[in-house]
Amino acid sequence: MLTLCTALAGLLLVLPLLGNLLFPYWWQDLVISLSIVHKGYRRLRRLERHPPLSLLDTFLEKVRSHPEKALLLFGEQVYTYRDIDRRSSQAARVLRDSVGLREGDSVAVFLLNVPAYLWVWMGLAKIGCAMACLNSNIRAKSLLHALGACGATVLLTTPDFKAAIEDVLPSLQEKGIRVFYLSAESPTSGVEPLQGQIDAASEEPIPVAFRANITSKSTALYIFTSGTTGLPKAAIITHRRMCSMATMLCVSGVSAEDVIYTPLPLYHSSALLLGVGGCLEVGATCVLRPKFSVSQFWDDCRRYHVSVIQYVGEVMRYLCNVPKRENERDHTVRLAVGNGMRVEVWKEFLQRFGPIRICEFYGATEGNTGFVNYTGKIGAVGRANFIQKMLAPFELIRYNVERDEPVRDERGYCIRVPPGEAGLLVVKITKSAPFNGYAGDRQKSEKKVLRDVVKKGDLYFNSGDLLMVDHEGFIYFQDRVGDTFRWKGENVATTEVETTLAGVRFIQEVNVYGVPVPGHEGKAGMAAIRLKEGMVFDGETLYAHAKDFLPNYAIPRFVRLQDALEVTGTFKQCKGQLVKEGFNPALIKDPLFFLDESKTCFMPMSPQIYSSILDMKLKL
After folding, report:
1. Among 191, 259, 275, 349, which one is most buried in terms of CB atoms within 10 A?
2. What InterPro entries does the database record attribute to this sequence (predicted)?
C-alpha cells in the first residue's frame, strides 16, 4: 500500500512536468480561454438588458466609482472621468437641442487627435447617435464619398480643416449636410461655431430616454477602411462589436492602475476602440498624442509614467531606427499591444528597450473574429485553440493569388491548407460571430462573404489575408490579397490611387501595386504608367497632383514607365509579376523614377539611389 501511495505521489509530481514538456502552452491556453469566455458571457448579459448596458454605461459606471481619476492626459491638460462626463453632456445637449439631432442619426467627425474626440463620442452616444470617424487625411472626392456612405447629416470638425471643408462645402450644402466647427469662432462663411454654446450648456446628466430604443445591434460607429473597391468603406460597428473590441486591453492583462499611451490616429479602431475604449472598459488612464513622434516617444513615457503602449509595426521600426541612447531602458513600460511588427524589429526592440511583454494581435475592423498572441511567441499573431474554434470557427483555405480566388475541389468546396502552409483566413458567419458589413452599398458587403466553403449553404467572412498555422498552433500573418497593401500603418486601396493618378494629363493608363522594401513594414506604393501618345513624363506635375489629391501614405514612392500594361483575359491588370520585379534598376529595363520629397519631384532612379534605399540612408 505504501508503495502504491508513493508511486501515485510521484506521478502527481511528474504529470505537471510531463504536461509542460508535451503541451508547453496548455496552462496559458486554458487561462486566456476561460477569461475570454467569462468576459464574453458577462458582456452578452449586459447587452441583453433593456435598454442594453453599452460602453457608454461602462464609462458612466467608472465616473461614479472614481470621478476624480485622470481619464485623459493631453500635453499639459488633464481630464478626469467627471470632466469628460460633464463635457459630453454639454455637447449632447447642444447637439440635440440646437443642432436638432435625434436618436439614430449619423454624425461624422473630422478631427485630429484632440480631447474633443472623446467627449463628442460620449456625447453622441448619450443621445443615441452613431459617430462616423473620418480619416483626417481624406479630401475632395473621398471625403464626399465617405459622408455619403455613412448617411451623415451633420459634420463636426475644426478650423484645422478649413481648406478641406471649403473645397467641398458647396457640394455638402447641396446634399443637405450641415457643417459645424468645434471652435469659438468660424473662419468660414456657412459654417457655424459651436464651442460657445457648448461652454454655456448645462452639465446635468442626459436622460436615458434620449437613447431608449438603442439595442446591441444598433450602429454605434462607422470606421472607414480601404478595400479593393477603391474609395473608403464604412464598416458598421454595432454596440455589441464595440464592447467586444474594447475588452482587448483587459484580455491582454491591462488593469485600472495602468497608464496607456496612444500615439495612433483615433479614426482607426486600434486607437479609438482598443486604446481609448479599452481604458473606459477597465477604468485606466489614457495619454493621447496629437500624432506619433519618434523623438518624443520615450520622453512622454517617462513624463506620464506610462505602463502600456499601443503600436503598429511602423512605430516599433521607427523607435529601433533612432540612434541608441544611454537612458532608453529608463522607463516604466511593461506591456506593448498592437499589430504588424516584423520578427527582426520585435527582437531588436526587446534587446534595446528591455523585457517589455509584446501582445501582438490580428483583427480586421469589419471582421468577425481576431487573434491575440498572449504567449509572447516572437512573430506570431495568436494561437489556434479549441475555444477560439468553438466561438468563431475559422479555416485557412488554399488561395490562387494570380486568379485572386480560393481553390476549390471537385465538389466545389474550399480546400484546407495543412500546418506550415499559408492560406486565406475565412471565418464562419454565425449568430455569435456576425458580419455586419459596410454602410452605403450592399455589394461591398457581399464581396466579403464566401459561400459553400466547407459544406453547402455555409457563409464565411473573407478576411482578404493570408495566414499560416505552424505545428504548435501558432498563427502568423503572411500577406494581403487583392488590390490593397499596407504602408505607414495605413491600408492603401490601389484602385483609388489609380483613379486619382489617371487625371494627370500625360497618363493614358496606370497600374498601382505595393512592393516590399528591405527594412520597412508593409509595401511601398509603385505605379506602372503608360503615357499618352506623343507625351513625355513630367515628374514635377505628377508630384504636385499626387500631393493635392492623395494622403501622403498613398502616394506611390516609385514609378515605372511601360509601353503597354499587361492585363488578364478578363481585362484585370496583372500585378503579381510587377510586384516580384520590384524597383531594381539593374533588373528592370523600363525607365524608373523615385519620389524625391526634397526636390518635390519624381526623379530618375539610379543604382546609387537604389543602394541608398536598401541601406536605409534614404528616407521613404
Report:
1. 275
2. AMP-bd_C (IPR025110), AMP-bd_C_sf (IPR045851), AMP-binding_CS (IPR020845), AMP-dep_synth/lig_dom (IPR000873), ANL_N_sf (IPR042099)
